[in-house]
Fold each of these.
Amino acid sequence: MLRTHTCGELRINDVNKTVTLTGWVQRLRDKGSLLWIDLRDRYGITQLFLEEGKSDQKLLVAARELGREFVIKVTGTVAERHSKNDKIPTGAIEIKVESIEVLNQSKVPPFTIEDATDGGDDLRMKYRYLDLRRNIVRECLLLRHKMAQQTRLYLDGLNFIEVETPVLIKSTPEGARDFVVPSRIHHGEFYALPQSPQTFKQLLMVSGFDRYYQIVKCFRDEDLRADRQPEFTQIDCEMAFITQEDILSTFEGLVRHLFKNVKGIDMPSVPHMTYADAMRFYGSDKPDTRFEMRFSELTSVAKGKGFQLFEQSELIVAICAKGCAGYTRKQLDELTEFVKRPQIGAKGLIWVRYEEAGTLKSSVDKFYPEEELKKWAAACSAQPGDLMLVLAGESEKTMKALGELRLHVAGQLGLRDKNKFAALWVIDFPLFEWSDDTKRYHAMHHPFTSPKREDIPLLDIDPGKVRANAYDLVINGSEMGGGSIRIHDRATQQLMFSKLGFTEEEAKKQFGFLMEAFEYGAPPHGGIAFGFDRLCSLFGGADSIRDFIAFPKNNAGRDTMIDTPSTISEEQLDELGLTIKSENSNR
Amino acid sequence: MLRTHTCGELRINDVNKTVTLTGWVQRLRDKGSLLWIDLRDRYGITQLFLEEGKSDQKLLVAARELGREFVIKVTGTVAERHSKNDKIPTGAIEIKVESIEVLNQSKVPPFTIEDATDGGDDLRMKYRYLDLRRNIVRECLLLRHKMAQQTRLYLDGLNFIEVETPVLIKSTPEGARDFVVPSRIHHGEFYALPQSPQTFKQLLMVSGFDRYYQIVKCFRDEDLRADRQPEFTQIDCEMAFITQEDILSTFEGLVRHLFKNVKGIDMPSVPHMTYADAMRFYGSDKPDTRFEMRFSELTSVAKGKGFQLFEQSELIVAICAKGCAGYTRKQLDELTEFVKRPQIGAKGLIWVRYEEAGTLKSSVDKFYPEEELKKWAAACSAQPGDLMLVLAGESEKTMKALGELRLHVAGQLGLRDKNKFAALWVIDFPLFEWSDDTKRYHAMHHPFTSPKREDIPLLDIDPGKVRANAYDLVINGSEMGGGSIRIHDRATQQLMFSKLGFTEEEAKKQFGFLMEAFEYGAPPHGGIAFGFDRLCSLFGGADSIRDFIAFPKNNAGRDTMIDTPSTISEEQLDELGLTIKSENSNR
């Protein structure tokens, strides 16, 4: 090694040692007779020290020529500092410099290499290698490293085998859009990049691997939204000879292991809630349960009093914001504006203040005298000092809107603390969801999810009512993982494909190998996949996944640092037997 | 869990326990009054037992209906076996069956699920999920799992950070052919799949990550040969602030750790040999050093005696096969045939028997009397009982041919034992190799490899003579890994690109980001990558990597199980803005 120690290593008991350090010049403070340099590497910062009159004159000249981010190698003696810095682990010592070698110079970086940088997003992406020098960003990737190691440690301990599944696989029409890879050898044919290793992990169960896992890259060619990446990473797992309860307890175990070993948090056991209840109480299949504020239905209590809006509504539903009776008119107007935004889509907001004095005041006093509002308060378990917020309209839309309002109000009340974590298993998801676009049912999870046995008779009568053996792990209102008990027999799988509108031929072409595999002794099995990028960002207390990915793409799917995607040569296109359509012939 | 125990778990001290097992019916032995079933899962085999008269009659009927590979769930009582089987860990017990539930039936598998299967390669690939049920194949993947875990354990212990680098990157012309991925959003543009994360790991060093590793999928669209896969896995590593010696000792440590912890073998420290010596002594840059049999040059000793073949030869070189003086004429003819094969390309073979009696007999007695042959023997350090094998001709070709002969003879002599391991660092590789095809120098390693400082003056005068700071780890004659100390300044990198025939513009377009990064304080750095598939197969004592990959492609790059590559829909092509050239317009 070019160094004897790292920049995070030296302590007071190293005083008088001769050491060699390497690293980057973080800053230089020149007080005329005294000169300090902060030397930085991945492991920390160590203060270097030179003194006019005592240090060699040439050395002083050389030191003064150093610029920010120069890479240097320094030899010197460890000395105790006069004024110690207890904010950094090396703060008790400094190095009296005896020699400096410049290993590489640096141009002035386009933004400051500090936690609070002056660089904007675009600049940071273009110079990602400099952005990654910032402690705050490197910490995110160190956290990710730790998460991966702890995940493997936990799963290894439970006899899971890590198996790499192929990246060059086959394009299938179900699900999101595939990235495809033209084959040069097989002209006109394509591989596809996996959206998940789903069928392969199921085949591994058919193979008797019993317990599989992989931390694996997956790919989706979707129209990008903020915080969605074309390539992302999953913790992908599957188990055989299990019930749903086994999966839930095994992977609740994983999450608790991670909280314990990465964040030092003892997480309580994770409650279960049906999808139906989650929708009913929170208007969401991924409720944030760091706080309660459950929905209370007022439809039967509030209807029939001549208030036109309510009379026309399928559902009247409220949340109770504890201690918010003092909200000003301005605050209430802001909430009304919030729900009326097109993304939320409510027509208006009804509020009821349950004042400390015990009186009730509302925005619908004309229609509802206090004794009626008392009934509302009872339905909402509201107490004096609370504020009820009521939405009405078409059931599904209203639930969703109130769910958004609930999060908004909770945010205002500081109930969504990033350092607090609440996990929830949402279970019994519907098997299908109806698409108005395609006028057919789609698999809510994927076509390999098994229906609940007792709901199978509904498959023909009322497919929308069939519940699946499917589950999501939700933490702080975000879906962290999801999975299901799979179909493991050919007949059910074939029935499922037919319900999804596959012809027998299509099903066979796309998934024939899986259905055939099911005929050779497929065991009962199920699994789960966690969004690893998101899990890391949750643990890191961040909103965005981007800083937990070393080299992310921007919102247009582009890596601006290496400048990709980019054109390829005519020769490459020729070899692949492809031509690019001219712009105007393209739709 | 559907089971209380696995099929590999029960022992004599479990007798009388009521247990539930799940697994596959391996075989059924029906002796009329007694019925045995071998139940198999990943963990082992447990014998089930039913007895006419004692077991329930319905149960006996059900048991007799079981077929091979049926998946069953069995409850029963653990009993001591009358005749124990000490070949399996559960051989002391059997289960007296009380109930059987068929979890899934199985058609008769297309080949037997046994270590010695009757299935051919093609069938096994098509039904890979059944092939993976065979112990012998599963063991390969369990070994791989263990190798991966131990690799991470070692590198984690040395402060390496695991970082995931992107899969959707940029196509570059240097090196092998890229797989490309058309972008739907950016019409006419493409991503490329990485042949290695080379530039990204170097950028991580520029970022100060100091020590990086990743077990990572890489991709090469090469014409496939046996045992080459379009996607393969690397252990990819990089370190900053190091010398070449640091890299060699760190990764020698990794390999020794793996041998110790995966195979229980204490490996001695790994010798270093220059590329020049490897070529001189073994005619190969990846010599098998499980045995010596080094080359001895006879050019000066043997020339000038009127033997036409030798007089016309640039090089005369021999190996000495210890104790082989007794080789029959037939054996020697076979060796002569071997070297004359077109793949080897020698014109003929000269042999000299140093007989036990001390006399020397050769195929060139006419030209070389015994006293001349004695000089050969001295040059070869041959002893009575040994056989010398001599090739002559153009230097490079002759060395290569003798290298092949050396391996062939060693194979015959049983010197290439799969359970013996000999590792070697080959260092000081040439920086460039000349290509007769393109009439220019190519980077022997890659364009980021640094030249030896003392050879830099040769860059302009004699590029072929410039040595690189590049090294390979060779085990048993196979390259297991290779790497280099990298260039870390813009000027040298630019010079390197120009020597490789890049115009300044091309270099900038392809690698501008890297050269720019070198201007912002790039530290000295270097690294290595190991072929993980090959390393696993070496550890597994296999010749082929295929059984160490869960779902390999065949030699035509095809996965016959899922049937890919395959056609995609017109709609997909449209969205990508691509058309497939008709066969006749394609070159």
Note: Chain A has 17 helices and 23 strands.
Amino acid sequence: MTADAQSNPLENMGRAAKDAAYALALLSAKEKNALLLSLADTLDERAEAILAANAKDLDAARASGMAESLMDRLALDPERLAGMAGDVRAVCALHDPVGEIIDGSLLDSGLSLMRRRVPLGVVAAIYEARPNVTVDVAALCLKTGNAVILRGGRETVHSNAALVEAIQACLTAHGLPEGAVQAIRSADRSLVSALLRLDAYVDMLIPRGGAGLHRLCREESRIPVITGGIGVCHIYVDESADQAKALHVVENAKIQRPSACNAVETLLVHRAVAPRFLPLLARHLEAFGTLLHAEGEAFAMLFAAVPDRAVPVEPGDYDKEWLSRDMNVKIVDSLDQALAHIRAHGTGHSEAILSENMALAERFVSSVDAAAVYVNASTRFTDGGQFGLGAEVAISTQKLHARGPMGLEALTTYKWIARGDYSIRA
Amino acid sequence: MTADAQSNPLENMGRAAKDAAYALALLSAKEKNALLLSLADTLDERAEAILAANAKDLDAARASGMAESLMDRLALDPERLAGMAGDVRAVCALHDPVGEIIDGSLLDSGLSLMRRRVPLGVVAAIYEARPNVTVDVAALCLKTGNAVILRGGRETVHSNAALVEAIQACLTAHGLPEGAVQAIRSADRSLVSALLRLDAYVDMLIPRGGAGLHRLCREESRIPVITGGIGVCHIYVDESADQAKALHVVENAKIQRPSACNAVETLLVHRAVAPRFLPLLARHLEAFGTLLHAEGEAFAMLFAAVPDRAVPVEPGDYDKEWLSRDMNVKIVDSLDQALAHIRAHGTGHSEAILSENMALAERFVSSVDAAAVYVNASTRFTDGGQFGLGAEVAISTQKLHARGPMGLEALTTYKWIARGDYSIRA
């Protein structure tokens, strides 16, 4: 342990989490599910107290002038709280990956070797003012036998305290240490830095928030961090694409939920089909209030079709995660130009090609370096639920450990187990 | 790209590596093996020039008073160079994991989904003054389609320049960019910090060196880093262990290669067998010049058997990676005490129990949190070659991405590939 860790104000919290992790790692799937079921029941039973705590947060948020959209994410009501309990019950139904034998072999040395899947140990999560994330992350961590340290948005301090009290009451009732699920209750921002230095105890850090939080974690964290969630996603409309069908895919990728990280931000269109496709596109999207950002010929074509929904591209637009009904549209001469644009501006999240040309599509799939690559499908599918993972811990856009939607398996590691007969290395 | 990355003196190197990575990712296993075979041949052909460059490094090292053991690791001769070429040919024979379909499914949405194993992209390695590591890491990265940026010890600057020239000549002959394998040639230490900030281009950092280097990387790197290689390993001798056989396992774990990270540093002995086992141990190890560090009764028993090979434990000894013929010996009352000691002092590398009690052994296996856990075997087996991985990139003692010996698979990630029929998310 470093001197630095010893002077860390979160030292005790880290130690308690580590101790709890040893206990959690020994639980059977059945024991973990019993714990989660009782947690779901406890959330139902304590509804009144939890909603009262949430009301305090809402009052404070209203007084501080929080935006309506953020207030909505912060707000709980009986229905939402019941939904959270239901989500915990759904986690019970998922397969527990802990204990699986990943692979194994009998070695020449006589050793019987296997890799067993085990919990990571201690996970830390930093997230925004969304009380549902508190329960969601805690449930996923407990399901996989991990302890967790939570640092939610400071605007949810009362809600999170009530939720973590409920969780800790269940832990105690099951003979487990409260250190298994802990929340940093102080709004003191310096504690985020302290958390990032807690590498003596924490095995993985999951930031759930905007680009700024991810950058902070990447730059300052001594704990291995899963960064992601930032999506500048592209769709390339090849000259062979079915244009009528392409319109619906683009509409889905841009309009269904513009604020999602898997929404498309830039459409790349082959020059050969641009004169026909771009006016169709402009007129199709007009009804959805989309604003198209384009340059040169593309701008001229879009502007001619629907003048008030096309604006010139400005510097930096191709690197923007719009998170709105804005979309860049660019004409490219070839697949290679499309690939070059994606390499220059993509964030490695989700990229799609729309094409009837199988060889070209395969080249796109092999050449694009992203967590998810689509042929003739919307980028909106990048999601743990859609991919059949049952749960989503986060969406990773880095390449170590887990890439793309992270399910329960991403909360595990493995240990090598070798059994011998007083075997020695030759 | 951040403003910081733009002002990084290694910016061009990072960009060249990233560009090269796109080309390498498209190579077939056959093409990569052809490249590696020609690299092995080139090392043979250029032996004279490489040895001349190495001689310059050796002269400088000698003049600066480098220790003999370090000089030995720096030195090349015709046999060692031929061995390096042979190692490259051995890498050709390994299975290429790139392109494997890890898993897949047909989703309710109609999407055909699969995970394809792909190269990480750009790897960076920081290592000591060992020219063989230059070729080793480059060969493993090329085999898996990764570009690599190498930063070897500054004492090997001429050797590494000659080796990287040989590698780049092969790349050029195969129509591949030199950016695929680059070395930082300046001895300027500030470039290490610059490398650690190259996260816009580098996907994984592998430090191969002492605890100080690993700490520096963990604290400063913005690139995901694989830390490891530090081993405070334990063997617990349970009361049921066969004592005669146990002596040989302990001897192997301590003596075969004391400088290895998987050598044992502390022996934990059950109190019931200590009075018989410890004198046997002291006499058995006496011939190997082992110095035993112990406290209380353990010290008394060892000292009584072989007075000049036992010394009292000093503060901090239990946390020391001796890397020598020193070993701590401690009496414990139970498995739980042994586990508590390992939790307090272990580095998560390799831990062993010697026991005839299967239930106890299984409890040890489940309770110890380490990359490798052994029942009745020496800790010395923790090694990529011993585990049948064919190659060893590093030994990880962290839990993300890879744990324990890392083979070729640890140099890969995956991408999700989904094919639809203009599919949209409902």
Note: Chain B touches chain A through 75 residues (CB under 8 Å).
